[in-house]
């Protein structure tokens, strides 16, 4: 609870910076709960749980904010609002997501992210910043996003992906000449079933 990381090094940011499994043996992250986590990286992917991963299975993992202040019961006083400005908790000059910054050949199941994410140049997503050949199942994002290329669930997709029984809610602020979408952006394809 309350983990903070600010890196200017040459690696992704997350509780797990980089995880690389194989098609024969996936790495599994299971039953992890991150509360009030802050991550920042100038030029590499950033997220609360995993900065970058390939052949990773994420199951039953949660990222969210809760009020731990003795001085207020209002979470908006901690995270900000549209009038005073938001306090973005996941920041990156590259891909950024609430749960994972960048995933390839991976699976996310029964997981969610509810946080504030800001990106300056590449894709940001409420759950995953960028996904390639990845499946998202029974998962959701409820995040505030600000960036040049921002989407509620997955910031950008490439390759062939699957999204099922999942959804995104929240708010998106697109920067000048930027683009935004409720579910996902990108040049890849997605087989979408019961998702919104």
SSE string, helix = H, strand = E? EEEEEEEEHEEEEEEEEEEEEEEEE
Net shape: globular
The biggest sheet amounts to: 16 strands, parallel
Return Rg in Å.
15 Å
Give an overview in words:
The chain is mostly beta strands. The longest helix is centred in the middle third of the chain and has 5 residues, at 75-79. The two termini are 30 Å apart. The chain is built from one helix and 24 strands. The strands form three sheets. It has a 16-stranded parallel beta sheet that branches. Strands 2-6-13-18-21-23 form a six-stranded parallel beta sheet, with no helix packed on it. Strands 9-10 form a two-stranded antiparallel sheet. It is globular and about 50 Å long. It has one helix spanning 75-79; strands at residues 4-7, 16-20, 27-30, 33-35, 38-41, 50-54, 56-59, 62-64, 80-81, 85-86, 90-92, 96-97, 100-104, 107-109, 112-114, 116-119, 123-125, 128-132, 135-137, 140-151, 154-158, 160-181, 184-186, 189-195. The model has no long low-confidence stretch (mean pLDDT 89). 3% of the residues lie in helices and 59% in strands.
